[in-house]
Design brief:
By secondary structure, this protein is of the alpha/beta class. Helices cover 48% and strands 8% of the residues. The chain contains 12 helices and 5 strands.
Amino acid sequence: MRKTYGKLLPGMKLDDLAGKLIVIEGTDGAGRTTQINMLKPWLEELGHAVLDTGMTRSELAGDGIRRAKEGNNLGRVTQSLFYATDFIDRLENEIVPALRAGFVVLTDRYVYSLMARAIVRGMDGAWIRSIFSAALVPDAVFYLRLSVEELIPRVVFSRGFDYWESGMDVFPGQDMYESFRAYQAALLAEFERLGTEYNFQIIDASAEPRVVFAQLKAKVLSILEGDSRAAYFAKPEERTAIVPSKPAAPALAPSPLESEPIAPAAAASNGSLNREIDLLFQSMVAFYSDRPHAHAGASADGNGRANGNGNGNGHLHRE
């Protein structure tokens, strides 16, 4: 049965969550979204139903968070509680129902990113852990590790520096580049601590996306090996090794003629019998052809011609 990190939401049952919960973690620019965009169709091709979710996608709080972050005056406590509301709403209304229906849930970041951000911003670690203690323990957490030096070029040549992801609320007065370096270095250090605490599986995100994807595929497949549908996804030649073969239906007992070969003597006897039947049939045909018949006052001669008076002239003779 699934577990949480401490608390259980009211009315939530964990004994029937048959799906898989897979977390892709990492800081912005590490390639999380790229990997999820490749993992989802691949899993669907294997026959799995997949839900992908992530921060600020809650119908309850997602829009509010985005609007609040358009300004620069969102306090750290308000921010933490806003993100907690977003997470709990998605947990209750998206993640748990999908797991109950047997889905594979791919989540683009989880409570670990929310805890790391809050702790770097000075929030009490015990308090922030208690807020997110209702989170389900995932089947796996894959952390895409990237250094600050590797991260900076990706951010610069993609979307550029962002006020919040640069930690300008944490390091005010610095230029955005220096603030970004300082904030991301602190964030990555916190991820390393959380990785030890929550058993992250480390993936080198500095490699090419396809290389990272190949590593993730192998690890995800190992998680799905115990799935009850493993036999269905196996290659045809492997299915016999996974699915116990059903006992064959009892065959109908063959007839004596089918089960035993015909001996030469019996075959010769059968040939003689066939010839005798043919001769008998021909004799019967000749007998009935020579016998006179009355039909509407007419008779037939030996040539089968209707003559009525036996003179063979082919004309009917009426009485």
